[in-house]
Design a protein that fits this description.
By secondary structure, the chain is α/β, with parallel strands linked by helices. The chain has a single domain, classed as Rossmann fold (3-Layer(aba) Sandwich), CATH 3.40.50. It contains 5 helices and 5 strands. The chain has a 5-stranded parallel β-sheet with strand order 2-1-3-4-5, sandwiched between helices. Helix 1 links the parallel strand 1 and strand 2. The chain is globular, with a radius of gyration of 13 Å.
Length: about 110
C-alpha cells in the first residue's frame, strides 16, 4: 500500500510512515508542492497511491467519481506536526483495513 501525502501535511509524516513500514511519499519530495489537485490525482492513479489530504475538494471529487485513487481525508483542525502524528499513527491499522475493505474515502477525525 502506497501513500501520497498532500501538501497540507508535512514531509515528516511521510518519513514516519516509512519508518513504520508503509510506502509513503510527500508531494514536496516529488517536486509537486504547487501541483494542482488534478495533477496529484493523476500521479496517485499512475502509482496506485492512496492520497492522504486535508483538502475537502479531493474527498468530494473521489465521492463524485466512480473511479480514482482512495482518499484518506484528515479532518483534524490545525495542529502541530507532533500532535498530528500522535493522532494519526495509532489509526493507521484501521485506515489500512478500511482501504483493504474497499472504502474509497476514509474520513479521519
Amino acid at each position: 500500500m502506497r501513500f501520497l501525502i498532500d501538501a497540507q501535511l508535512s514531509s515528516s509524516f511521510a518519513r514516519v510512515l516509512r519508518d513504520w513500514g508503509y510506502d509513503a511519499e510527500q508531494v514536496f519530495d516529488l517536486g509537486m508542492a504547487a501541483a494542482a489537485d488534478a495533477d496529484i490525482w493523476r500521479h496517485a492513479i499512475q502509482r496506485s497511491s492512496v492520497i492522504v489530504t486535508k483538502d475537502s475538494d479531493v474527498a468530494a471529487r473521489r465521492r463524485a467519481s466512480p473511479t480514482g485513487p482512495v482518499v484518506v481525508w484528515i479532518r483534524f483542525g490545525n495542529t502541530s506536526k507532533a500532535a498530528l502524528l500522535r493522532k494519526l499513527l495509532p489509526l493507521m491499522p484501521r485506515i489500512a483495513a478500511s482501504i483493504d475493505a474497499g472504502e474509497t474515502v476514509i474520513e479521519v477525525r
